[in-house]
Amino acid sequence: MSYYKVYCIIVTYNAMRWIDKCIATIKEDHIQLEIVVIDNNSTDGTVEYIKENFPDIKILPQHDNLGFSGANNIGYEMALKNNADFVYLLNQDTISYPNTIEKLIKIHESNSAIGVVSPLHLNDNGDKLDKKFEEYITSGSCPNYISDMSLGNPKEYYSIGFVNAAAWLISIETVKKMGGLFSSAFFHYGEDSNFLSRLRFHKKECVIVPNSFIHHLREERAGKMSIEFEKKKLSIKKVEIMMNVNVEYNKAVSTLYRYAGQQVFKRNFSGAYELFTYPIFSKSSIKKIRESYKTQQII
C-alpha cells in the first residue's frame, strides 16, 4: 500500500485539549501519509503547540475562522495539487488506532461503488459506540448491521445513509466527480450531509467498517448546546433540505414546511419562524447551485 498517497486533513479551532492525542495516535505503516492542519484562527496556543511538538506536520494558520467547510476545502486543494490519491478528513477531537487508514483504503478498493469510508466512532472511553453514531445506525439507514453484530457475523463493511465527517476517507477522484469537497453554502454543520446527498446523486455509497475505529471525544459536550445554537441548527437544516440535489424543489419546500409544523407542535415558535422564512436564497439561485452539483463544479 506504500504506493498510495494520503493527505490527512485536520481542521483545528482552539484544539489544545485534544490535539496531542489526535496527532500522536495517527500511525500508518504502509501508506504515504501527510498530515495537514488547517487552523481556524485559534487563540489558545494550538498553532504554537503543533509547531513545537510536531515539526514535521504542515500547518496552515488562517487569519479568520473559515468554518469546517472552508478549511477542509483548503486541505483538499493542497492534496489535489500534490497528487494525493486520498484525503482523510479527521476531527480534532479524535483518537485513532494503528493502520486505520490502511484498512479503510482496502475497503474502498474492494468496490467501485464506494465513495466515502468511515471507521466506527466510539465514545470517549472506547467501550461503546458514540451515541450520535449509534443513532445513525439505528435510524434504519444501515440495514443488517445490528443483527449481524449480535450474531457475531459482521460483514467487511455496511452501507449507511449518513455518518458525520469526523473520520472520512475519500478518493481524490471521487471528490472530483462530486465537483469538489464541501459547498460554500455551509460553514459548519450540514456540509457532510450535503456532500453525501451529492454522493448518492452520482451513484456512490457511504460505508462504515466494523474492524476499524476512532474515539470521538464529545460526550462531555453532549446536551450543552445553547438556545442560539439550536436555532442555528434549524437554519442549517433549512439550507440542507433546499440544497438536496436528489429532491425536487417543490417537494423540498413541502419538507421544510413539515419541519416547521413540527416546531409549532413543540411550541418552538421562533424555530418554526426560522424554517417558514425559507427563501434565504432565491429559487433561481437554489436551482443554480443544485445544477452545479450535477455538473461537477460546486458553488
TrEMBL record:
Per UniProt, the keywords (alphabetical) are: Glycosyltransferase, Transferase
What Pfam families does the database record attribute to this sequence?
Glycos_transf_2
Asked if the record carries the keyword Lyase, the reply is no
The highest taxon in the source lineage is Bacteria
Q: Where is the Glycosyltransferase 2-like domain?
A: 8-176
The record's PANTHER family line, in alphabetical order, gives: GALACTOFURANOSYLTRANSFERASE GLFT2 (PTHR43179:SF12), RHAMNOSYLTRANSFERASE WBBL (PTHR43179)
Family membership: Belongs to the glycosyltransferase 2 family.
Protein name stated in the entry: Glycosyltransferase family 2 protein
Q: What is the lineage of its organism?
A: Bacteria, Pseudomonadati, Bacteroidota, Flavobacteriia, Flavobacteriales
